[in-house]
Give the backbone structure.
Amino acid sequence: MKSKIKTIKENKIKKNVLLILRIIVSIGLFTVLIIINLKNLKSIPEILENLNIYFAVLGILFYFIGIAFEAPRWNILLSAYKIHIPYTYLFNSVFIGFFYGTLLPTNIGGDAYRGIDLHKTFKISVQKNILALYLGRFMGIITGLLFLIISLSLGMYKHLNKSFATGLIIIMPLIIFLIILTIIPKKFKIDILFNKIKFLKKYSANVLEFSNVLDSYKHKSKVVILSFVYSILGNLSSLISFYFIGMALKLNITFLAYMFIIPITWTITNIPITVGGFGVRESTLVLLLKEFGISSGSALTISLIVLIINILLAIFGGIIYILRNLIYKRKK
C-alpha cells in the first residue's frame, strides 16, 4: 500500500516538473521571438493602422468554425459505438476543452477534459471516448498532410531555401512511414520491438490499442468517410481563416502557401513541449511566413493576431464553462 502511494506521489511530482518545464519553454520561446524581432515591433502599429476589419472578422469567424467542426466529427466517431450525445453539448465541450488546453497551465489537456466530461455527465466509457478523440486527431493529421502534399505538388517547394527543402525531404517520408506504422503496427511487429526496448515498453499497449481502434472502424466506412470529410472541412476553415487574416494585413501570399504553412505549424504546435502551443506556434509561423517573402514585421504581426484569436476563443470556452456550472448548480 505504501509503495503504491509512493508511486502515485512520484508520478504527480514528475507531471508537475514536466508542466513547469513546458511553461518555461513556452515563455522562453516567446521571449526569444520578441528579442529577435525587437526592431520589428515598431512597425506593428503602422501595419495595424491599415488593417481591413472586414477580412479580420472573417478570419476570426473561420478560425471559430475550424474548431467548431470538431463537434460533428466527434459525434460521428462516437456514433460508431452507438453513443449519441446532443450536438450542443459536444460543441460546448469542444470549446471548454480548448479553454483548458490553451489558457490553463495544468496537466489536464483539452482532450483529457473532453474524455472526463462525457463520462461524468453521460456515464460514457472514458476509454471509448478518448479513443474516438484520438482517432479524430489522427484524421486531422492525415488531412493536414494531404493539404501539405497538394501544396508541394503545385510548386510551393520553390519558395523554400535548400536547407529547409532538404529537411522536408528527409522528414516527410519519415512522417508517412510513422503513420503507416501506427495504422498497421502488427505487420511490422512494432509491439515486439517496443517490448524489447525498455523506454518504449510502456507505449507498446497504447500502440496496439490504437491499432485495435482502427480495426474496429474498418467495417464502419460511412463513419470513417464522414469524419474524414469533417476533418477536411475543419482544416479548410483554418486555411481560409489564415488567408483572410493575411488579406486583412494586405500580405502578398497565396492560399496555396497557407496550405503549406498551416499544416506544418499545427503539427509542430501539437508537440507537447509547451503550454497550449504558446511560443512554438508563433515562432514557427514567423519562420515559415518569412520563407514566402513576408517581412519580419508582418510575419510577427500575423502570429500575434493568431495568438490573440486563440486567447479570445479560449476565453469564450471559459465563459461556456462558467455558465454550464451555474446552470448545473441551479438544477441541483
Notes: The mean pLDDT is 81. Residues 66 and 236 are 7 Å apart (CA to CA).
